[in-house]
Amino acid sequence: MKGIWASDRTRADGKYFIVANEGDSFIVTDGKGGFFKTGQQILTERIAATIGNPATTQLQTISFMDEEIAPKLQEIVALQPNALILLSGSIVVDLPENVRIAIDANRLQTAKLVDKTVTMTFHPIESALQHLGEQYVTGTLMVKVISPRPQ
Question: Average pLDDT for residues 122-126, to the nearest whole number?
């Protein structure tokens, strides 16, 4: 991909893995934990797709009914140790004051907290465990498992 960072107009050229498409835009990752949306964080000049290593994608839904989030997420990680696991959906947390979600202008905000609701869009499961590990939650999440993890 050839393009520039929207935040400071420096070059953002490189190889990115396409996680999903949203209309005319793509959600991409650099394989190092960064997620970006074309047209938002990266203003693209050129996108050229190349065929990489074979990967499988699985989707599943998990629901929580006022229960601790960590055990179910840890079980998913344990079953897919070499996969990229992304969460999407909304959950209500019991202690929103304990949720700390970092915001970086150059990255797609994959999780946000409003009142007691955490909304995730392609949010890495490792990050969810970091800022939600102690929470009791209610809601449903879609789990996208890409195996093996893109490099």
Answer: 94
